[in-house]
Amino acid sequence: MHSIPLLLWPVWRSWKNDLLRGQQSWGRRAALLALAIAFWLGTYLTIRRVLRYFETVYGLGPSLAYQLLLLILLTFLSLLLFSNLVTALSTFFLARDLDLLLSAPTRLDAFYFARLIATTVNSSWMVLFFSPPIFAAYAAVFGGGAAFYLWVLLILPLFLIIPAALGVLITHLLVYWLPARRIRDILFFIGLFAFLILYLAFRFAQPERLVQPESFGHFMQYLSAMETPSAPFLPSSWSAEILAGALFKRPAEQGFFFALLASYALFLPLATSWVASAVYLAGWSKAQESRQGRRRTERLDRLLERLTRPFPAVTRALMLKDIKTFLRDTTQWSQLFLLAALVVVYLYNFKVLPLDRSPMPAGTIRLIVSFANLALAGFVLSAIAVRFAFPAVSLEGKAFWILQTAPIALGSTLWSKFWLNFAPLLILGELLVWVSNLLLRVPPWMMTLSLTTMFLMTFGIAAIGVGIGAIYPKFNFDNAAEIPTSFGGALCMIFSIAFIGAAVMIQAWPIYQLAVAGLQPGRSAVPQFWIIASSSIAVGVLTVAAVFLSLRLGLKSLEQLKG
Amino acid sequence: MIQLVNLTKHYGKLAAVDGLNLEVPAGQIFGFLGPNGAGKTTTIRVMMGILKPSAGQVLLGGYDVERDAVNAKAISGFIPDRPFIYEKLSGAEFLDFVGKLHRLESRRLRHRIAQLLDLLELTPWKDELVESYSHGMKQRLVVCASLIHEPRILIIDEPMVGMDPKGARTLKDLFRALADKGTTVFLSTHSIGVAEEICHRIGIIQQGRLIACGTMAEIHDRAAGKDGNLESVFLELTREQITD
């Protein structure tokens, strides 16, 4: 089986060469490392604070922390499964080295295991990056000690391999069974799967249970429901069960759950290898068949022509090209399913929120939720910007030379991509805030303030997406869906969240002032308009800085591509 | 029409192009020859503003490619060695896009698209997405794109790669016809046959330096005593440099 290391060698070597001899300077790497450490610290401190707060809730602390752990692990599991589906399609069926490897005397089982390892590593690094501060925070608050860390180390590889093997299995079956003359059908299905996973993840979590103790009839019944997973057949629940045993010193059958996890982690890759040996070559052969298509979208083309008419000729040409490419590329538009899932789940949240059962006055809690909603909606927009705005420059791919040799300023390319992403993000952001505020029945000033802040924040979010996408372009990709999972994608998310955090913090003061004024009429001396206007101007200044800094740095970086 | 002034491009310590001086007058087809890794593609990429020079200057029609990039590019057309284009656009849409980047007026653009697709025999496939084109068809589409704005300068990197004999003949005839009408053609190639057949002047580059430049007769004189064909002269000159 020494051919498995051989098959992984080019991947490992390329990574090592890039690290040691790549074009990125050591100073820049040190800065990125510092940023990563800052992010870890931030996550650690936030989670620790939340857990400490949970601890103050008499008798319920560990149960709430356990539910949060379940939710985090379930989120990781869904992310891993989706990421593995996308990566497996690329590593097993689309990668450029497949011709070389499969025309060589490579053993199919060695090829399968090598690709499974590559898929697992490619898909899991984000979870590996984000999880350590979370686990460390749990250990710090609940004192898991060495045993807890040992369990984390034992569980993590098994937890990563299960969704990887499942992702590879599903991808193989899809490519084999579907009339795979067009890969896009498969990606369409992947989009649907992701939709289902998200929806199920949400339903499994049953967040409304946390705030409805009365529906359990008895406090002990409530407590016991809080201490059991809502989806006991998922690896995330088994892992949470093992970790909870170490953290909360409660009796748990750690050995049993570990055996369960290990048996699945061993069985699934093996079972997938049997399936792969039976269907891989037929599937790969189908995936090779030509992907050709004639365009049949004249009506849509005319509509697009009309919609982009207000823009200058060159910007319009760039926009039309980008829109058409997007709509004809299933790897791109199938992600819209994810978006739809996100919006549905998001708004559903507000519909089922039991605000009337809160001990606080309903008006105050509505304002608090609406304020949190501003940050949450910004977070949703950031996630979407990482999916769509961040890859905008990279999607030029190897055809980027066309823009480089055209008689246009590269800046106009960046601005066209900015506006193209800004418009749909704005519509979505305002819709999220408007509908959720309607459901919350907030006062008119809160509606105005929320809509204004979201309007301003969208400029920053779109610019950070496009700008960082230009700083970290990935012109060499097998599958467009893999662009956001790159390092630059993570960085884009971090900056976007930092920007939203700052903008929302600026608005905290006026919201507090106006909320107090609402409770005690006549107390506030400052008129409503001036409070909203002054804080909005501050957010505006922050936004202008974010937009110009991101796009300027992006442009500079694109110009530096000239060497 | 084309001027390279002391053009230098370093990749780290390696000088890919090393103090290149060259002038190509209007209406001339200039063949840029050299072995693999000699610096041909780097020179061309610097000429088109895709790479920045480490030192020196490129003037296209009198415009400095670095300082006056938009004007320099507006009068130039470029055909790269590998035809990477937007796979999800149809051939006609791609040409329409490039024409708009060059700010062509729409009636003239429509006329040029039809004319060029016809000339390079792509009309039957104009509405097919580029992803279904063969390599040769993509190459011909890139040629159409490079000519859409009737450039005064045409810069070409390895034009015959992946071309069938008929396509290659069409291109050679096209380049000659363009030069006759005053277009300056700068053509980098491995193929000595192509250079011999259509170029008015030839430059031979090795290790980033121009080791010979002139008309076919002048190049022959440089390698005096060698037999008549350009291939043996080329091999002799490039060998001499290595032994030096």
Report a brief summary of the structure:
With 563 residues, chain A is mainly alpha-helical. Helix content of chain A is 79%, strand content 0%. With 244 residues, chain B is α/β, with parallel strands linked by helices.
Span from first to last CA of chain B?
A: 33 Å
Number of E-type strands of chain B:
10
Query: Uncertain segments of chain B of ≥5 residues (pLDDT<50)?
Result: none
Q: Uncertain runs of chain A with pLDDT below 50, 5 residues or more?
A: none
DSSP summary, beta strand count of chain A: 0
| Biggest pleated-sheet summary of chain B | 6 strands, mixed
CATH class of the largest domain in chain B, please? Alpha Beta
Please tally the helical runs of chain A, counting DSSP H or I stretches of 4 or more residues.
Answer: 21
The secondary-structure class of chain B comes to: alpha/beta
Task: Determine the mean pLDDT of chain B.
Answer: 85
Which band does the percent of strand residues of chain A land in?
under 5%
The CATH architecture of the largest domain in chain B: 3-Layer(aba) Sandwich
Name the shape of chain A in a single word.
globular
How many domains would you count in the coordinates of chain B?
A: 2
